[in-house]
Amino acid sequence: MPPADRTLLLFNHDWDAVGHARAAAGQGLLLDEAGFDLFSFPSNARLAWFDMARFVDGLAGRARQRGWSAVTSSHEQFGALAAALLAERMGWPGTPVNAILACQHKLHAREVLQRVAPEANVPFQLLDAAYGAPIPSGLHYPLFVKPVKAAFSVLAREVHNPAELHRHTRFGAWELWVIRRLVEPFERLAQERLGPGLPSAHRMLLEEPVQADQFNLDGYVFDGEVQAIGVVDAVMYPGTQAFMRFELPSQLPQSVQARALDIARRFLQAVGFTHGLFNMEFFFDAATDRLTVIEFNPRMASQFSDLYRRVQGLDLHALALALAHGQDPASVPRLAPSAGAAASFVYRVFDPQQSVTMPDAPRRRALAMAFPDALLFTYPKPRGSMQRDFKWLGSYRYGILHLGGRDAAELRERCSTASALLGWPAPYAELLVPVPDHTVPVAVHSAAHSLSNPSPLRVTP
User: Fold this and answer.
1) Residue 447 and residue 48: Cα distance in Å, rounded?
2) If one looks up domain 6-101 in CATH, what number appears?
């Protein structure tokens, strides 16, 4: 029999695979894994027969035999919800299932935010049309459109007229199959748990666009108390909604960070989020002093864990494991910071015809020798998957590199040198070759004005 007190990790990939292994080794924890990788073949073929209820039932049946006593996941599409369901079933510490559903159903989350923090909301409404159906008249453009349930900014973009909106909501048979397989496990539970009359998650949400800088508030809730971890700044590729890099420490004033935490506290209490890590994406316009919530992620933003570890000595994966076992994250020891500044650099192309060369073994060895602290992820894809990325995301993300430095200036210098070793352009706007106009995705979530009195969008008869 396996030893008791093992921790189950669901959909554990990329940053989570690295972070959980490191944190578990430091705490002497034993780990098991379950789930599959949505972004690699043949693992993602399991999407064809994935059933959330059957998946959780199977895990619950194996729990005693395997000696599991806790579960955690920061996987947005399936993992966070599956972990909450299993924790509920087994009586383990976990985020309440309904809180996960309330955050991930973006229309429902907007409605809750309108009740508890209307000053941080945007005008919004459900698109009254199924995928590919005619677009209703009377809408006022530009509009930001995104799925009611999605992850990784999939199918989120600004549109400027009915024709653009119609093109954006039309999908081929294969695309519709993938979308429905991704959304249906959530849809069934949301309809069951969040009450009658809940609009289907197989729909699109319309919002008024916002023009402002973007930030991420990371925190956790333990014993019902909301605690902030920090704020990470998001920097976009110019003229797009695509992330170019994430930076720590934040340049956002502490007074604004405190306002963000107050809004998060009100929202999380309203949806019954009493335990777990969270991430709130938001805009802040310094000219108008307006803070606007983009969305709440009811899980760790695992891409940022390494940044906090470098700059603050705080390992978010260690916090996640502590929460999974019902322990106060404040009791997790801090490490000695290794950098004064750190960033997650995101490499993308926006032209479907532009080729991407992945670093070969000699380039990888050169990077490791010159930058032993570097954390590199590459995302090679076949042509068909790349084309779907251009449609669904507006770009193809082919790599991510994490580095630290004494300060922002040294970090930039190190990134430029490391990027040259990889054969990639450094993700600083002025160092990049301009993208031809016809290849840039149509505008962005930060490309229009905001209202001083947010309310649901109104359709003109």
Assistant:
1) 37
2) 3.40.50.20
Q: For 122-141, what is each residue's pLDDT tens digit? A: 999 999 998 889 999 999 99
Could you give the CA distance from residue 397 to residue 385 in angstroms, rounded to a whole number?
A: 11
pLDDT for 433 equals 54
Q: Report the pLDDT value the prediction gives residue 439, as an integer from 0 to 100.
A: 33
Structure tokens belonging to residue 428 = 């600083």
Contact 281, 263 (CB under 8 A): no
| Residue 82, pLDDT above cutoff 50 | yes
Domains 6-101 and 213-439 belong to one CATH topology: no
Mean pLDDT, the chain, rounded, equals 90
Query: What is the residue whose two structure tokens read 């920061």?
Result: 74
- Report yes or no: 215 and 234 within 8 Å, Cβ to Cβ: yes
For CA atoms 189, 192, 196, 202, give the dihedral sign: positive
Cα distance between the two ends of the chain: 67
CB 7 within 8 A of CB 68: yes
Starting at the edge strand found earlier in the chain, the sheet holding 290-297 runs 290-297, 276-285, 213-222, 225-236, 243-248, 341-349, 396-405, 375-378
- Annotated domain spans of the chain: 6-101, 116-207, 213-439
How many other C-beta atoms are found inside a 10 Å radius of the C-beta of residue 22? 16
**What pLDDT score does 441 carry?**
32
227 burial via Cβ count (<10 Å: 0-12, 13-18, 19+): middle
pTM (two decimals): 0.91
91-94: long-range contacts, CB 8 A cutoff, minimum separation 24: 92/324, 92/326, 93/275, 93/323, 93/324, 93/325, 93/326, 94/275, 94/276, 94/324
**How far, in Å, CA of 314 to CA of 337, rounded?**
8
- Collect all residues with Cβ–Cβ distance below 8 Å to 163 and sequence separation of at least 6: none
- Top CATH class, 213-439: alpha beta
